[in-house]
C-alpha cells in the first residue's frame, strides 16, 4: 500500500467571493470545475449573498481554482475574492457543494 509522504505538496485555501454569485449556478459550476482540475474541498452560499469555499490540492490545482473562482460561470459578476492559506491536517476526499 502506498502512502503519501508528508513532503507531498498539498495546499488548503479558504476563499470568500462577493458580487453576483448566488442564483447564477456558481456553486454547481465550481464543483464541476474542481472535478475537472482534480481539486478537493467544498463550496457553499452565505446568508449575506457571498459564496465561500475551501480548496485543497497541489499548488497548480489551487491556482487554477482561484483563477476560475475570480471569474465564475457565465452570469456571475465577481466583485471581490479574498483567500487565506489554511494549515489543516484534514484531507478532503472530493469536492462538494454544501
UniProtKB/TrEMBL annotation:
It catalyses: an acyl phosphate + H2O = a carboxylate + phosphate + H(+). SUPFAM superfamilies: Acylphosphatase/BLUF domain-like (SSF54975). Keywords: Hydrolase. Residues 12-98 form the Acylphosphatase-like domain. The keyword Hydrolase applies. Coiled coil: none annotated. Pfam families: Acylphosphatase (PF00708). The keyword Hydrolase applies. Its EC number is 3.6.1.7. GO terms for molecular function: acylphosphatase activity. The active site is at residues 27, 45. Belongs to the acylphosphatase family. NCBIfam families: PRK14424.1 (NF010998). This is acylphosphatase.
Amino acid at each position: 500500500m502506498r502512502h503519501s509522504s508528508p513532503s507531498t505538496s498539498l495546499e488548503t485555501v479558504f476563499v470568500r467571493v462577493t458580487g453576483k454569485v448566488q442564483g447564477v449556478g456558481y456553486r454547481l459550476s465550481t464543483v464541476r470545475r474542481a472535478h475537472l482540475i482534480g481539486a478537493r474541498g467544498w463550496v457553499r452560499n452565505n446568508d449575506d449573498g457571498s459564496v465561500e469555499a475551501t480548496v485543497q490540492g497541489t499548488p497548480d490545482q489551487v491556482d487554477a481554482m482561484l483563477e476560475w473562482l475570480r471569474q465564475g460561470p457565465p452570469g456571475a459578476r465577481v466583485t471581490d475574492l479574498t483567500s487565506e492559506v489554511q494549515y489543516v491536517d484534514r484531507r478532503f476526499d472530493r469536492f462538494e457543494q454544501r
